[in-house]
Amino acid sequence: MGGHWEEGWEDTGKSGAWTHSVPARSWDYPAAYREGFADTFTQLVAHVYGAVAAGEAPSPADAAYPTFHAGVAALCVQAAALASGRSTRWEEVVYADA
Q: What is the residue range of 86's domain?
């Protein structure tokens, strides 16, 4: 459920207006139920195996699982955070071409 305080609450569910299509295809349960690590892992394996079986890799923006590109981007952010800690000032995140 969600909404705005002034307008009242609406039941959007996991397939509602606030749901992006990429995460929505990874949910098995209705909105009231939590999904745990085992459920997340099952969905990850299903999406990766599905892409392998189809013989095609999705674009990094459309992938329903972390890609190599996402991993490289995360490492670039971590490198900037480490540099910021050493210099005690803001550092620019320099993204490597992956």
A: 66-98
- 55 and 98 assigned to the same domain: no
For residues 75 and 69, what is the distance between their CA atoms, to the nearest angstrom?
10
Q: Which of 64, 75, 78, 65 is nearest to 98 (CA)?
A: 75
- Higher per-residue pLDDT: 71 or 20: 71
Look at residue 66 in the predicted model and tell me its pLDDT. Answer: 84
Same domain membership, residue 92 and residue 70: yes
- pTM across the whole model: 0.52
Q: Say whether 47 sits in a helix, a strand or coil.
A: helix
Q: Based on the fold, state whether residues 58 and 71 are members of the same structural domain.
A: no
